[in-house]
Structures are given as C-alpha cells and as structure tokens.
Amino acid sequence: MRILFFLIFILVIAGIIFFLFIRYDQKISSLHKDNILLKKQLSKLKEQLKFLNNSKDNFTMQFLNVDNQYGLIPKGTLVHLSPYDNSNILQNITIAMEVGILEKALVNKTTWYYVALPVDTNINSRGWVVESSFSTFSSSSTKIVPN
Fold first, then answer.
1. Pairing mode, if any, of strands 78-80 and 110-116?
2. How many C-beta neighbours within 10 Å does residue 97 have?
3. What does 114-147 look like in DSSP terms, one character per residue?
4. pTM for this one?
5. Fold topology of 61-138
6. Which pLDDT does position 145 carry in this prediction?
7. Is 70 exceeded by the pLDDT of residue 58?
8. With 0-12 CB in 10 A as exposed, 13-18 as middle and 19+ as buried, what is 115?
9. Rounded-to-integer distance, Cα 31 and Cα 37, Å
10. Alpha-carbon distance 9 to 21, whole Å?
11. Where are the domains of the chain?
12. Backbone CA torsion sign across 49, 53, 54, 55
C-alpha cells in the first residue's frame, strides 16, 4: 500500500513538474518572439534617428536678394512651414495663383521662396515654396486668371 501511494505521489509530482516545464518553455518562447520584434523596431527607429540627425547636422541656410516680387505657382504646389522638404505642409494649392515673394533663401543647395498667398485669411497665408514649383516670375503684379 505504501508503495502504491509512493508511486502515485511520484506521478503527481512528475506531472506537476512536466506542466511547469511546458508552461515555462511557452513563456520563454513568447519572450523570445517579443525580443526579436522589439529589436527590429529599435533598429528601424535608430535608422530614422540617424537620418534626422544627419539632415540636421548638414543644414545650411543662406538668405539671398529677392530678384522678383511675384511668381506664379501652379495647381498642386505644396507650401511648407519651413524651407525643408520634410517640414509640415501648410497648404496644397488647389488653383494656379500669383504669390508675392517676401524672401529668397538657399537651403542645402536648393532655392526656396518665402511667399505671401493671396487669400482672405491670415491663417496659413505665408510659407515656403521650392523654386522648381514656380512656373514664372515677374517684377510687377499682373492680373492672373486661373484655369
């Protein structure tokens, strides 16, 4: 009788140990998968940070004399918050319009213009436009009718 009780006790203990081992193995496997995912996310974030830091280190801005007082920007032109391709976009122009040119700057070998948009509000009415977005420049204002 004692032997039977002892064998049942050993089997119960072995079952509990086996259950704990399986549970432990599942937890370790889950943590390993999470660790791999987090390493991938971390390396992606490090690459983005490296790109941002490199672009900030090489940033140069030289203000130039404004040659023209007005310019024509076509439909689809993006008006940026700052003279930088990755800066926030203030407006996406929906019609061709003549804008007043307030400043001209050379930023990392790209020419940008600080412009005043002919809109009825002062909200997002000024911003930076890259030179390649302009279709024409003029020294005096002319009446331009959008297509």
1. unpaired
2. 18
3. EEE---SSSTT-EEEEEGGG-SEEESS-------
4. 0.60
5. SH3 type barrels. (2.30.30)
6. 42
7. no
8. buried
9. 10
10. 18
11. 1-58, 61-138
12. positive
